[in-house]
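Sorry, can you check?
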Amino acid sequence: MGADPFADSAALGVRWSVLAIPFGGDEPSLARDPDLVLPSASAAKVLALLSAADAMERGDLDPAEPLRRGDVARVHDSGVWQHLAVDRLAADDVARLVGMYSDNLATNVLLLRLGGVDRVRATAARFEVVDVRLHDIVRDERTDADPPTLSTGSARGYARLFSRLWTADGIPPAVAARVRGWLRGGADLSMVGAAFGLDPLAHDHPDRGVTVTSKTGTDAGIRADAGVVTGPSGSVAYACLAGWEPGESDPLRDDVLAAMRAFGQELRRAVS
């Protein structure tokens, strides 16, 4: 990596955990505090998808089973189901809303059907997922009785998880394929993905020879982006997490997004 794109924002108080791992490479590249665990907002919803895919492959959850949004409390912010008229969707469609649009309502419906966050944790432990944790359902407001943040993780944990989802390393191939399918075409390209100039609503196939498949997370003072970039020169699993005190006008957000885009440009050069 050339000039460190994270140095200026780090000097202003942004904490970074960053890692890129080329497929087939012996040594990680593009690393900055990769073992630092930070809040990662919705990025760890990938664990809910992993648990749902595992349940489907085990026969515990029929992909066509209708799930009702009315069975959980309304939550807002990210997602499209809250704006639709339909109250029931097939479990497979609910998972796709989580993967493509980080749908909060769909996430909580899926977690309820799976039996809660404990089922997700158990699945992650069985597949030996390290340093990526989903702590709770999505909530519009958190009280002292709730976990203080939705999820936490390190760049190494996220990058290794995505690498394993693509190579089916220790994860059944059919399970990994379901998760990849739900994530494909994810609409949030505001962070690392911004560097590739892709159509945010239609990039599930290669564009200029490149595909980006990722799961992101955003909250006040949190930006997280993890996934896999594939191009003519190979594939790279990556994770880029930032945490900071946002303040009233959040002056550091633009610096964070610029650094994440610069990291994405490094990834673009690596696979092109």
